[in-house]
Amino acid sequence: MAVTSASNMQMDYMNLLMTQLQNQNPLEPMDNSDMATQLAMFSQLSLVEGISSKFGDSLALAEKQYANSLIGKTVTFYVQENDGTYTKAQGIVRSVYNDTTNNQNKLVVTDSNNHDYTLTTDGIVLVEDTITTTDNSTTTNTNTDTD
After folding, report:
1. Cβ 124 vs Cβ 68: under 8 Å
2. Per-residue model confidence as pLDDT tens digits over 110-134
3. Cβ contacts of residue 76 below 8 Å, gap of 6+?
4. Residue 66 half-sphere exposure toward CB, CA atoms < 13 A
5. Is the dihedral of CA 65, 141, 95, 122 positive or negative?
6. How far apart are CA 56 and CA 51, in angstroms?
7. Which of 41, 47, 84, 102 has a 20 to 30 Å separation from 26 between CA atoms?
């Protein structure tokens, strides 16, 4: 089934309405209030479709900004082993790119053994930000809220 936008449906409805008006029985004309109600519903549908599109764009931008904010941070995630079990792993986010096949932001994470993993932000269970101060001491801030 093809997805039809609200504006396309509204144009189809207007064409149908014009045909009905041209061919209606003059003794039994179409009810004006029904026609107005249907036009108002299509207008509302078109507005909701526009809002949904803008919200989707805003969400995509926020996800990209979040992914970019992880560069240089230590993240914890799970890796599926060959036997199907999951093992906790940890590494530093080295880069972020957009996978155009599914339009997802992908993180390239390198662990302590220099093994690279590619994952989405959904796969992260913990984010740590290690800060080195001028006296070479380190402070680790942990953020467990990754949703």
Report:
1. no
2. 999 999 999 998 888 888 876 655 5
3. 88, 89, 90, 124, 125, 126, 127, 128
4. 17
5. negative
6. 9
7. 41
- Joined together, the tokens standing for residue 3 give 């997805």
The partner residues of 41 in beta bridges, in order of sequence, read: none
Backbone angles phi and psi of 76, in degrees to 5: -110, 140
- 100 neighbors 72 (Cβ within 8 angstroms): no
Question: Is 45 in contact with 12 (CB distance < 8 Å)?
Answer: no
Q: The whole model's pTM is what?
A: 0.60
Query: What are 74's two structure tokens?
Result: 């230590």
Q: What angle separates helix 6-23 from helix 32-69, to the nearest 10 degrees? A: 170
For residue 29, the 8-state DSSP code is P
* Residue 33 in tokens: 């209030």
Residue with tokens 């792993």: 89
- List of residues 6+ apart from 71 with CB closer than 8 A: 93, 94, 95, 96
Residue 83, number of CB atoms within 10 A of its CB: 5
